[in-house]
Specification:
The chain contains 30 helices and 21 strands. One of its GO terms (molecular function) is 1-phosphatidylinositol-3-kinase activity.
């Protein structure tokens, strides 16, 4: 190219919309003769027969015989002149088409039609023409263009077109206009006096051409770019390889037996929507079938199929056929509250009409759902704000005690509310801030309002939000929630706000002292002396409170001070404090931990309390001991102390658990209960069965004799939940923890008490299995919580618990399988218990 540099721009790099300037129309109009007007009186209204003809230009873009945009019209203009002289209609108007230059195909054509008024409400084409936007060389046209109109025809954008612009490229006028264009681009030298003469001559030649020809010429102008614009497409993005097609890291592809003709074919449409299924879905869910769907009733076979779908667990993904079936019978299913969540999952939310019918028509007429279903609607799966607002409306029916029972999960649901709000459009967001709602649809407003009226609920909500403020991802969200709660309490419940500030001061004092003692080099007796001296010091202000203080660990308990002489330090790696608080009636002992994340224990004990509530609702009291645990920060917390002894210590001191219970509650005359009071042995059997089932469902691991505790009154319970959801530091852990010491305390495997223990286990498992959806929904709301064993595999956390319920089989079959697990004897587990005892002995 002789060293020359040519600059150009590709169309894919032009972020501007297509525009064209409609300048004028030249040529003589053919008016109708008086005879034609008499024969057809409607011709009188045509614009060409008026003195001033109102004309407009319609502009469209086409490519491959398909329109690329909606038509755009110019304003109306009037022709000037008479029937025997050239007529000019001037617009001088820029039109911007709703299509970008970067989106233009190579075969794009500009279809221009001049329209004439044909009556009061009609129009007729005066003529049309079609101009390819790209030249034969692929360059985008620019500058002034003179186009021939084909009289009486609309622009034909087909390829080839019947209305081409047909410029006479061989004419002298066309040759001069090409040279003028090159001069305007700076490719030819300029001379002012000569250029003026040239342009005057060009206008005269154009007027003479119009005078001598019957053609109509439409003059337009395309944008003049600084550099030539050439058609170009962006480079395609690399197609991601499916994981199954990638070779393993240690795979050797140079095997001699592998044919070199074998290669991977990438199909970019492999994961795209099936167009046939999409069309089928639109036909099945057509809005024209609404009247039929309202009266549709299922047959017996379809009713059974619907019933089977409603029994699916919350984690089950519906197939497209199941979604279509539920949608077809949506009006019939409105009478069943249990069908609500399945219906919401069957809605195609990308379809605006379908989504509007679901939220505005069907949800208001649906049978009142249970709270378990409302909790599921607050999970991460449901993003539509109106659905979440509906779920919050259902929570208004819950009592303060019920909200407190689910509060840990509701606080986590605020994270999904925030994500759903940012993903929603403006119409959905308006629902969250509408002043016309009698009940607020925002979850955060509901929780703050109820917390301001109920002290216990407000206390727990305050501490849950305080801990979440330290979260890296959602900390800013919970800072706003924290400020909203405090401002509401300042307006409506100042005494509760003052109580929370006193609780914060009380907790800060205890946790800071626990951190100090944990890092000190003193011996345990020295640490005990230090903590007792510190608690007894009047400057600390803990020995006696000026007013009763509601404990953050258990808001229903008020204390008036601490008992320094009964407080101590545990023998543990973290040296937690045991602080005895003096209550208005009884003492309440609190364990203060520093350096330990208690949020996992807090979740497990909350689920224990929930399951105990569910069992009691079925008149089944299994003497569960859901002691209180509260995380006050990611590394601090409080634990309720229950007077008890580990099974390992009880066996070491008393020989067996029966001797331990007999020592505290002896009944010499009751040989049938092994000389233990009947109520104590009954409590032991019930609590053993309850904890066997609950720990099995939650997959609690690391069960050895040091974290199995027994109280003097026979209450048996578990502590230390560092491993859940099937995780265990030991290999081959038993699915159900029933140690030999427990069976011996019931009189052996053949005793009536052990048989009763197994029967209670079966009953408890069946009862909790009926409430599996509630438990699964609560765990699903915790997937974004900073819980170690959930964070390890958040997508499998709910599935692990679901597998324990055995929901794929009948209740009878599930109970049989659970009994088989209960009957298994793990000799390996017994061996590890012995090894653990030896390790503890040498550690001392």
């Amino acid at each position: 190219m002789n060293g020359d540099v040519y600059s150009f721009v590709t169309t894919c790099d032009v972020p501007h919309q297509v525009s064209v300037r409609i300048i004028s129309l030249g040529g003589a109009l053919e008016r109708d003769t008086p005879a034609q007007c008499l024969a057809e009186p409607a011709r009188t209204f045509r614009g060409i027969n008026q003195r001033h003809s109102p004309l407009c230009v319609r502009c469209e873009l086409y490519a491959d015989n398909k329109p690329l945009s909606l038509p755009i019209h110019t304003k109306y203009s009037s022709s000037q002149g008479s029937s025997d002289t050239p007529c000019t209609a001037a617009w001088d108007e820029w039109l911007t088409l709703p299509c970008q230059v970067a989106e233009l195909p190579l075969h794009t054509q500009l279809a221009l039609t001049v329209l004439d008024v044909a009556g009061p409400s009609s129009e007729a084409p005066l003529g049309g023409t079609t101009l390819p936007l790209f030249t034969r060389c692929g360059a985008l046209r620019r500058g002034r263009q003179r186009l021939r109109l084909w009289r009486g025809q609309q622009a034909d954008a087909c390829w080839p077109s019947s209305t081409p612009h047909v410029a006479d490229e061989a004419s002298e006028l066309n040759r001069i206009e090409v040279l003028c264009e090159r001069q305007q681009r700076g490719l030819l030298p300029t001379n002012d006096w000569l250029d003026t003469l040239l342009y005057r001559t060009v206008d005269q030649m154009y007027a003479a051409q119009l005078q001598d020809s019957d053609d109509l010429i439409l003059t337009i102008e395309m944008p003049a770019w600084d550099s030539p614009v050439v058609f170009g497409e962006p480079e395609p993005k690399p197609v991601p390889r499916h994981p199954s097609t990638r070779p393993a890291p240690d795979a050797h592809v140079d095997r001699p037996w592998i044919s070199p003709s074998l290669f991977t074919i990438h199909d970019p449409d492999a994961f795209s929507e099936n167009l046939v299924e999409a069309k089928h879905r639109r036909l099945v869910r057509s809005q024209r079938l609404d009247a039929l769907d309202r009266e549709r009733k299922p047959t017996a076979a379809v009713r059974d199929e619907l019933h089977a779908i409603l029994l699916y667990p919350p984690t089950r993904v519906l197939t497209s056929a199941e979604m279509d079936l539920i949608w077809s019978f949506r009006f019939y299913l409105t009478r069943y509250s249990s069908a609500l969540t399945k219906f919401v999952k069957s809605v195609v939310w990308s379809d605006v009409q379908e989504a509007r019918q679901a939220t505005d028509v069907l949800l208001p007429m649906w049978a009142e759902p249970q709270l378990a279903d409302a909790l599921e609607l607050l999970g991460p799966t449901f993003q539509h704000l109106k659905v979440r607002a509906y779920a919050v409306k259902q929570l208004h029916r819950a009592s303060d005690e019920q909200l407190q029972l689910y509060l840990l999960q509701l606080v986590q649901a605020l994270k999904f509310d925030e994500e759903a709000f940012h993903a929603a459009d403006e119409e959905q967001r308006a629902v969250y801030y509408s002043p016309f709602h009698e009940e607020t649809p925002r979850l955060v407003d509901l929780l703050c309002a109820r917390s301001g009226r109920h002290a216990a609920l407000g206390t727990m909500f305050f501490w849950y939000v305080t801990v979440e403020c330290a979260d890296v991802r959602y900390g800013a969200l919970f800072e706003r929630v924290h400020e909203q709660l405090l401002s509401l309490l300042a307006r409506e419940n100042a005494p509760l706000l003052d109580m929370l500030e006193r609780q914060r001061h009380f907790v800060d004092l205890l946790t800071s002292k626990a951190a100090e003692l944990r890092t000190s080099r003193d011996t345990r007796p020295g640490k005990i002396d230090k903590v007792r001296t510190w608690l007894a010091d009047r400057k600390t202000g803990l020995r006696s409170f000026p007013e009763p203080l509601s404990l953050p660990l258990d808001p229903d308990v008020s204390v008036v001070g601490v008992v320094a002489e009964n407080s101590t330090v545990f023998k543990s790696n973290l040296f937690p404090l045991r602080i005895e608080c003096r209550g208005e009636s009884d003492a309440y002992t609190v364990i203060v931990k520093n350096g330990d994340d208690l949020r996992q224990d807090q979740l497990v004990l909350q689920l224990f309390a929930l399951m105990d509530r569910l069992l009691r609702d079925e008149n089944l009291d299994l003497k569960i001991t859901p002691y209180h645990v509260l995380a006050t920060s990611p590394l601090d917390g409080l634990v309720q102390y229950i007077p008890s002894m580990s099974v390992a210590a009880a066996v070491a001191e008393y020989g067996d658990l029966l001797s331990y219970m007999r020592c505290h509650y002896c009944d010499p005359e009751s040989a049938a209960t092994f000389h233990v009071q009947a109520s104590v042995l009954d409590t032991f059997v019930r609590s053993c069965s309850g904890y066997c089932v609950i720990t099995y469902l939650l997959g609690v691991g690391d069960r050895h004799l040091d974290n199995l505790l027994i109280a003097p009154d026979g209450h048996f319970f578990h502590v230390d939940f560092g491993y859940i959801l099937g995780r265990d530091p030991k290999p081959f852990p038993p699915p159900v923890k029933v140690c030999k010491e427990m069976v011996d305390a019931m009189g052996g495997a053949s005793s009536m008490y052990y048989m009763r223990f197994k029967k209670l286990c079966h009953t408890a498992f069946a009862c909790l299995r009926k409430n599996a959806n509630l438990i699964l929904n609560l765990v699903a709301l915790m997937v974004e919580a900073d819980i170690p064993d959930i964070r390890a595999e958040p997508d499998k956390a709910v599935l692990k618990i679901q597998d324990k319920f055995m929901l794929t089989v009948s209740e009878e079959r599930a109970v049989q399988q659970f009994e088989a697990l209960l009957n298994e004897t793990s000799y390996i587990s017994t061996m590890f218990d012995r090894l653990h005892n030896m390790a503890q002995y040498f550690r001392q």
